[in-house]
TrEMBL record:
Keywords tagged on the record: Carboxypeptidase, Hydrolase, Protease, Signal
The encoding gene: dacB
Native source species: Chryseobacterium tagetis
Protein known as: D-alanyl-D-alanine carboxypeptidase/D-alanyl-D-alanine-endopeptidase
Upper lineage: Bacteria, Pseudomonadati, Bacteroidota, Flavobacteriia, Flavobacteriales
Keyword Hydrolase in annotation: yes
Signal peptide residue numbers: 1-21
Length: 488
């Protein structure tokens, strides 16, 4: 906890008296123009110059934090900060480090690391084309084609280097050609039970409207393409102040939103990637001269499976690639898919409930400080998620000894350079802050690692809830809080 020192205050008062014309009153009332005020001369503050001469880097951090406590953007907010030394295992400086706060998308730090720990960075999802029966001398397959999926969350999306549907289908068609199949006298059967029909309700208290994005289990409407993820979207005639409603295909609940920002025309089809792949595959076969007499049909269970031969197998990008994309872009749909994947891996089903149990068990196994922790979803969209800054910092410290730490660190956005941090730390801290961001309405968070000017690696967490003003205003305060840590 920061302790404001009297002698620091005395220095500041003295300097303020000497240079009154250039001093700033920190308790100025908040106005929309607070951040946009311009000064004729951009001179360095004499108070800051004196403090930097007399005070140590740690003392400068403490003074800076005390300034932030009275800042108009933060003074009525709930927020906490900690900078932690992973070598000494001690707090360097902190404020409200034990306060449970909404972490927003820094929740993905827990989800993605659990997947890396349990599955390994080289884990891949497989989507296979198989056939049953026999191929006669005329190239007629008297049997069925099977598309066997494993819940690949990137299937057909081009995310993380994943192939498009067209590319996967091209490989499947080539595989049939290599087998000499010219006609299919049977059905195309979809065999996958992953991620479908097992969710009883949506995550608790999910925030649906944030910065003109509308979050759903399959992603935001901005990301949705009818070619990839079909979503029920209809005009709403029941309410005058809402224009559309969204119905999750995986849970029978309705969600209102002001407008649709997805790609392409609106559709009422369900987001079923394997079904889309299978139907497009059938259409492509027919167009290329390979007739299919049967239909596309799902078969989630099979008590008496047919003997089948593998024709072609599509491998997803590695888990490391998926996690890189997830953390760089803060992709909600991939994070939720990872949650269900670890649930399936350990519990044998694909529910988010099982995924949460697996993540919590993993955190318990690695001695995560669970005081104040509430883990509700994999992406951080729920306002019921809570965590303390010190728990995040100690957790990130513990990962530095893991064999996959390099992959994990690389997945984090870099200040001023990549991902969701590309527009922060553009000058001070550029290339030195490696962190996951989080954003909800009146929630802005940041947690990760700092490479200091002296070459040290420090760990930090900064969680801000219920701030005043705009997102850009709180981001500037966050940058100011982090800035002096670079001198440690």
């Amino acid at each position: 906890m920061v302790k404001f020192r009297k002698y620091i205050s005395g220095i500041t008062v003295l300097a303020s008296g000497l240079f009154l014309a250039q001093s700033t009153v920190s308790t100025v009332l908040f106005t929309p123009a607070y951040d946009s005020q311009k000064v004729a001369l951009n001179l360095p503050s004499p108070v800051a110059a004196i403090e930097k001469t007399i005070l140590s880097p740690k003392e400068l951090i403490d003074v800076n934090l005390n300034t932030m406590i009275t800042d108009p953007v933060l003074k009525n907010a709930s927020w906490g900060f900690v900078v932690y030394d992973p070598k000494t295992k001690k707090i360097i400086s902190s404020y409200n480090e034990n306060m449970p706060l909404v972490p927003a998308s820094t929740t993905k730090l827990l989800t993605t690391e659990t997947a890396l720990n349990l599955l390994g960075e080289n884990y891949r999802w497989m989507t296979q084309l198989e056939y049953s029966g026999q191929v006669d001398e005329n190239g007629v397959l008297n049997g069925n084609l099977y598309i066997v999926g494993s819940g690949d969350p990137s299937l057909g999306t081009n995310k993380a280097g994943a192939l498009s549907y067209r590319e996967i289908i091209s490989d499947f068609v080539s595989g049939l050609s290599n087998e000499g199949i010219k006609k299919v006298n049977g059905d195309i059967i979809i065999q996958t039970a992953l991620f479908k029909g097992n969710i009883s309700r949506l995550p608790e208290n999910v925030v649906w409207l944030e910065n003109n994005n509308y979050y759903l289990p399959v992603g935001t409407t901005r990301e949705i393409s009818p070619a990839n993820e079909k979503l029920i979207v209809k005009k709403n005639n029941l309410s005058t102040d809402k224009k559309f409603f969204y119905v999750s295909p995986y849970a029978n609940q309705m969600v209102y939103a002001e407008k649709y920002e997805g790609d392409g025309a609106l559709t009422t089809k369900l987001p079923d990637a394997p079904a889309y792949l299978a139907n497009t595959f059938r259409t492509t076969l027919v167009k290329s001269g390979i007739a299919v007499t049967g239909k596309v049909t799902p078969k989630m269970t099979d008590a008496t499976p047919e003997s089948r031969k593998l024709v072609s197998a599509y491998k997803s990008p590695t888990l490391g690639d998926i996690i890189y994309y997830t953390n760089q872009h803060s992709d909600n749909s991939l994070a939720e898919a990872l949650l269900r994947t670890v649930g399936f891996f350990k519990k044998g089903d694909q529910t988010s409930e099982s995924g949460r149990v697996v993540v919590k068990d993993h955190l318990k196994d690695i001695a995560f400080d669970a005081e104040g922790l509430n883990y509700i979803d994999g992406s951080g969209l729920s306002r019921s998620n809570t965590v303390t800054p010190i728990a995040q910092a100690k957790y990130l410290t513990s990962l530095m000894n893991e064999k996959y730490y390099g992959t994990y660190l690389t997945s984090l956005p870099i200040g001023g350079q990549s991902g969701t941090l590309k527009r922060m730390f553009n000058i001070t801290g550029n290339g030195q802050v490696f962190a996951k961001t989080g954003t909800l309405n009146k929630v802005k968070t940041l947690a990760g690692y700092i490479k200091t000017n002296s070459g040290r690696t420090l760990v930090f967490s900064l969680l801000v809830n219920n701030y005043a003003g705009s997102v850009d205003m709180v981001k500037k305060r966050m940058e100011k809080i982090i800035e002096p840590t670079l001198e440690l």
